[in-house]
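Fold tokens
===========
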Amino acid sequence: MADNVTYASYLDLGRVLAAQHPASDAHDELLFIIVHQASELWLKLCLHELTAARECIEADNLRPAFKMLARVARAQQQLIQSWDVLSTMTPHDYSAIRPHLGASSGFQSAQYRMMEFMLGGRDGRHVKLHKSNEDWAPRLEAERGRASLYDAAIHLLARRGFAIDAAAAARDTTAPYQHNASVEAAWAAIYRDPQDHWDLYELAEKLVDLEYHFQRWRFGHLKTVERIIGFKRGTGGTPGVPYLEGVLKQAFFPELLSVRTAI
């Protein structure tokens, strides 16, 4: 059977390369489609790695998790660089495409929302947007009901003997995460003495990398939108740039940022 496998058949290139269906004669529409399709593939990889990494953290098996989290950070760099390609589109170029987009918007990306949910940014209102999007609404709702990647890390801190408040260790995972002093104190102890807590120290830095790259992706999105459409409303009904500015203020792992001031 393997002798019959070709590069094209293994990658299913027939379907992949035939999956672009421009709705206009605009030259830049192919660019627009490919950038977003490629981003969805990178997001698929990120979700694959984050799922396995969380399982490793829950099992206190951190070494494999480090490789997975590092891979997610590299994939995030690809997502960030995609904005550099898309930003070659001018306002005139985009104006030829926008009438054909209808109400479609990156805001509707279920995989992006799932990644946000896995990291801990969970707003139940977003689940409703995916009720007609295959099985994504129940998948997102199920994710809200389980420990996020950061919750898994906090539970590990508690199992390792750090004094973690019940408000953080046994919190309602469907609710937004709130900064907790006991979690900050645990990370502070780790950062002050990394030699005694090296694997937890490395876990902390891997999580910081994730948030850093996620925020860089958000910032790249904001600046690309600003460059191409200015302050027009987004096609999905969001306020556009003001909305993107707002999400930049949302942190997934607040104690890993505040601990830098504490120490």
User: Anything to note?
Assistant: The longest helix spans residues 198-229. The chain has a mean pLDDT of 93. The radius of gyration is 20 Å.
